[in-house]
Amino acid sequence: MTVNESAPPSENWAHIIVQALKDWDTSLIAYVPDISIHRVTSIIDEDPFFRLVSATREEEAIGIAVGAYAAGRNAAVFMQSSGFGNSINALASLCLPARTPIPFFINLRGGPGEFNISQVPMGRATVPILDLFGVVNFTLTDDYRMDRVVDGAMKLCHANRQPVAICLTQLLHGGKLA
Amino acid sequence: MRRFEATQLTLRLAGDRPIVGNLGPTSDELWHAGHRDRNFYTYGNMGLCSSIALGMALATDEQVISLDGDGSLLMNLGTLASIGREQPKNLIVVVWDNEAWGQTGHQTSHTGTGTSLEQVAVSCGIASSSTVTDLEELEGALSSAIATDGPHLIVAKIEEAGYLPVAPVEPEFTLYRFRNTFVDPQQPAPPH
Questions:
Q1: Is position A146 within any domain?
Q2: Which of A44, A170, B13, B53 gives a 20 to 30 Å CA spacing to A120?
Q3: CATH number for the domain including A118?
Q4: Residue pair A82/A57 in contact by the 8 Å Cβ criterion
Q5: How far apart, in whole angstroms, are the C-alpha atoms of residue B40 and residue B176?
């Protein structure tokens, strides 16, 4: 049995993320669409608490989030790991020197169940690159105690005044079917 | 029009409005023209100046001014599409356009070979877009933008006249200082 043939995971993970964003008064969400995390971004889009902003590229989403934070509104970004590759300089030359507490929710490709060879290198390199920069990151493969991890990551993000990355895997959300 | 004179004019018209400076000389000249807490200087993240300003405009009702550059905006033209999509009434993007990558040897940029950032902006839905070539035109366009709903984009054709000393600014302190003009510094970000 492959991962894709298993029963679809619950949507609990998406609601946990939405609740954590609300608990931390994080209302501006900048993103580039991704089918695997569409469930969470569509809940955000329908909730008037949030302002969901579509960027054309992930580094732009980071710029928008930093601007919102600078003007007093907490912000987060959603992207997939290929988009993290597009945005490394925004992290390195803006977020880290300016110390911006922006949570990155990254759909991590290249793990169990991946079907696309082109997604594997960047997906596998994402966590090592985050580690190189010293960006605290958590990889979630199921929703057991996920509420505590995400809430704790948000707290750490603000305490450290640096981004944190919460990596969401196909094992968690069911992934893209192919 | 010299960019530093244009920056001084912009600062005079801006009042207390927040200003984001593009990386390098634009931020240096913004500091020399008049250092203030509401100047957001950048020294990296090439291409993101107007993206940062867009995020600010979506977080506050105040008018936000971006001082971008032609080479930088060409690196992230998508942000014009995002501004067109979001239609922030309170965003003014000024592009210092010297038709060159000034910091890397003054190579001709794409605005020097026919790309019109004004027309790109209009195509992206930024209807109030214009190009100015002298200080008088800039003053007119900027005064009009400040007085009306945006988003606005003003391409200002400029010349560089040497470089001023690098501004003594620190990214972390820039953000702290800037943000504290919007939030009470006694109330730290974590709500619990």
A1: yes
A2: A44
A3: 3.40.50.970
A4: no
A5: 10
Fold exhibited by the domain B3-179:
Rossmann fold (3.40.50)
Q: Hey, are the CB atoms on B44 and A57 less than 8 Å from each other?
A: no
What residues of chain A lie within 8 A of the CB of B93, using their CB?
A: none
Q: What percent of chain B shows pLDDT beyond 70?
A: 96
Q: In whole angstroms, what is the distance from residue A29 CA to residue A101 CA?
A: 13
Question: A78 is in which domain, residue-wise?
Answer: 8-173
Answer yes or no: is A2 within a domain: no
Contact criterion met (CB < 8 Å) for A24 and B191:
yes
Task: Tell me the chain A residues in contact with residue B182 when contact means C-beta distances shorter than 8 Å.
Answer: 70-72
User: What global pTM score does this model have?
Assistant: 0.95
